[in-house]
C-alpha cells in the first residue's frame, strides 16, 4: 500500500460574494510510496500550494480524497487533526516559519513540547537530528541571529524531530541563495537515503532534479511525470528542463 | 479619507475617543465643582478641590499622550504605505490633521455634553457626602467650559505636532516596518533587579517601622518614591530574571502552555514591564486613595469622639481666677436661660511646652536652632498635683523637684535636667487624664505632674527663657443635656456672649459644628478620592485594553505558525490563558502587596487626622481591594476575549 494516495482531488474556491468560482484543482490523482522522494513542479497558479495545503490538512478539498497511510485526513476531527499532523507529517516552508521568540533549540523542540513529551525524551531525540544537520553550534541563538541556510536547516530539524511518516516541503529553497539551496537539496537526498519519505513542491529545477520522481501540474491536473531511475542529477536536470519547455509551450498530455 | 481611516480603526479609536470624552467630562466637572460657591463653603475644601483640578489636568495630558502612542504605533505602517503609494509628507500631515481634528471635536464636544449631564448627578452625590441640605440648582459654568476647552485644545495641538513630526521624520520604509521591529532578548540586569529589591524592601521596612504621625508623613513621600522606583526596577529586571529562572527549569519550561507563554513574555518583557509597572502603580494608587478617604469619611464619628471627648470645649489662655469665674458664670447663665443642664463638667489648667531633647536633657527651644528632625523635639504637658488629683481622684505624693511622668519610655534618665534644673522621676504613671497636644504628631511626648510650687517656678522660668512662652491653658469641657441641636444652640449663644468680652477665650468648639465642617472637608476629600480613583481606574483599564490589542496583532503571526506546526484551537486557548494569567496576577498581586505593606504607615497617617480605628481601616481596605479585584478581573476577561479573537482570527 502507498504511503500517500491522492484520488480525483478537486478544489474550487468561491469568491466572497459567491459570484466567481475559481478552480484551483480539477482532478489530481497520484500516489507516493514509502521511502520515496517526490517533487511536484508547476507554474505559479497551477495549484501547487493548494495541493500542499490539502495534503497538510490545513485546507479541505471540494471533492476526492487523500489517504495518508490508509487514513482519510478529511474524516479526522479538528481536535485530532493537529495531533495527527504533528505526529505524521513534518513541514518545511519557504519562509521557514520559525518563531523569533524562541531559540533555535526551542524552535526544534516545539512540536515535541506540543505533543507533551517529557524533557529527557526530547533531549535524546534532539542530539542525533542536530548532529545530522550540523547546527549544534547555533542551538542557543535566536532565528534573527542566524543565516537563511541555518534557518532552513533548523526548520528541517523541526520537521524531522517528530520522526514523521512523510515530510512536506513547500519551496524549501525558495528563499535561499544557490549555495545554501544546494546544501539543502543534498541534505534532502541524504535524509531520503535513510528511508524518509519526502514530498516537495518546488520551482527550482536544481532542487527537483535530486528527487526520485517529478510530477508536473498544469491547470489543476497532473500533466506529466518523470522517474529518475538510474539517471544522474545532471541528466535529470536536462530532462526536467525539457519537460518544462514543452509544458510552457502547451504540449499535448502524455504519460 | 480621514473619516474612513478612523472608521476602519474603530477598535483603536473608540476607546481613545472614550478616554477623551471621559477625561474632558471629568475635568469639566471638577472645574465646575471647584468654582461653585455652594461646594466650597470652606477654604480648605476649595483648596482640596483646586488641587484636584490640577492633578486631573496633568493626568489627562500624560494619559492622552500614552494612549496616543499606542495608536500611532499601529498607524505608522499604514501611513508608510500611503507614502509609498505617492502621498507626500504634506498630504500625510493633512490627513493626520483632519483625523486629529475630528477626534478632538468629537471628544471635546462629547466630553462637555457628558460633563453637563453628569453635573447634576455629581451635585447630588456631593451634597449627600457633605450632609448638607442645599437646594439643588442647575448650573452651567462658562468658566469650566472655557478651561476645559483650553486644556484639551492645547493637548490636541501638542499631540498633532508630536505625531506629525514623528511621522515626517521617519522614512517610508521605517514606517512600513515599524510594526515588525522585534526586541532583542533582554539581558538579565542583576544590578537593577537588586536595586529594585532594595528599594521596595527599604520602602516596606520604613513603612512598617514608623512610630508617629510626623515621621509617617515624611516617610509617606519617601516610601511612595522608593516603592515606585523599586516597582519599575523589579518589573524591568526582576521579571526577566524570574522568567529566565523558569526557563532554566527544564521540566517546567518544556510543557505545552508554559513553553509558549514564558518565551512570549520574555520576548516582550521590556515593553511589558513598563506597562505592567504602570498598571501596578495605578492600581496601588486607586486602592490607597480610596481606602483612606472612604475610611476617613466612614470614621467621622470616631474621629470626633477622639478629638472632642465632650460636646463643648472652651480653651482660654492665661486666665486669672476672676476671668475663670466670669466664664463659668456665663456657662451657667446660658444653661439657665435655655433650660439645659450642663453634664460631665470638667475644668483644668495645664501648660504645654516644647523642648529640645538631647541626650536625656530637656532644654529650652530658642527657635534659632536648625531643625534636624522631629525626634530632636519633645512636647511636654504639665499638670499640678492638685489638678491631677481633681481629674483622676487619685492622690499623688511628690517630693520637691520630683515629677510623676507618663509616656517617658526610655527617652529620659531617672534624674534628668530640664532648663538647667535637676528633676527626678518619682513615679511612672500608666495613664494621664489629659491628652498631650502633640501626641498624634510627635514620638517624644511626655506628661508630667509636679508639685504646685515647682510648677509655678517652672512656669515663670519658662516665661523668661522663651521668646514665645507657652500660655497657661484653661480647658473647660462639658456635655449639654438634650439632643444635638441643643448643644449647637448652647454653643451659639455662648459664642455670642463671649464675643462681646474684652478678653475672649482662645477657642470655643462644639463637636457637632466641627462634625458638619468635618463632613464637608472629608466629604470633599472622599469626592476627590473617588474622582481620582475613577480616573486611575479608567487609565488602568485602557492600558490593559490597548496592551492586549497591540499584542494580539503582534502575536497573530506567531500563533498562525504554531498552528501550522500542529497546535489546535484548544491548545492555543490554553496558552493564551496561561500567558494572560501571569500578566493578570503580576500587577494585581504586587499592588495588593504594596497596600498590605503600606497598611501600617497609612494607619499612622490617618492618626494625624485623629482616626484611630484600625479595624475600620482594615475593613475598608479589604472591601475596596475586593471590589477592585472584581472589576479588574472583569476587565481582563473582556480584553482577553478580544485578544483571543484577534489571535485566532487568521487561523
Radius of gyration of chain B: 32 Å
Percent in strands of chain B: 5-15%
**Helix count of chain B, per DSSP?**
19
For the largest interface, the chains and their residue counts are: A-B, 32 and 24 residues
Mean pLDDT, all residues of chain B? 80
Low-pLDDT ranges of chain B: 179-183
Pattern of helices and strands of chain A: EEEHEEHEHHHEHEHEEH
Structural class, from helix and strand content of chain A? alpha/beta
Q: How would you classify the helix and strand content of chain B by structural class?
A: alpha+beta
Overall number of strands of chain B: 10
Shape of chain A: globular
Biggest beta sheet summary of chain B: 7 strands, mixed, barrel
| Backbone CA Rg of chain A | 18 Å
Q: Could you report the average pLDDT of chain A, rounded to the nearest whole number?
A: 82
Q: How far is it from the N-terminal to the C-terminal residue of chain B, by CA?
A: 30 Å
The end-to-end span of chain A amounts to: 22 Å
Q: How can the largest sheet of chain A be summarized?
A: 6 strands, mixed
Describe this structure as you would to a colleague:
The complex is a heterodimer of chains A (255) and B (651). Chain A is 37% helix and 25% strand. Chain A is α/β, with parallel strands linked by helices and 255 residues long. The longest helix of chain A has 17 residues, at 233-249. Chain A is globular. Chain B has 651 residues and is of the alpha+beta class. Among the domains of chain B are: 1-181, no CATH class; 305-514, no CATH class. In chain B, helix 17 runs parallel beside helix 19. The radius of gyration of chain B is 32 Å and the shape is elongated. The relative contact order of chain B is 0.12. Residues 179-183 of chain B have low confidence and may be disordered. The A-B interface holds A 56, 58, 78-79, 81-83, 85-86, 91, 93, 97-102, 106, 109-111, 113-119, 122, 142, 144, 158 and B 182, 185, 250-251, 254-256, 259, 263-264, 266-267, 558, 561-571.
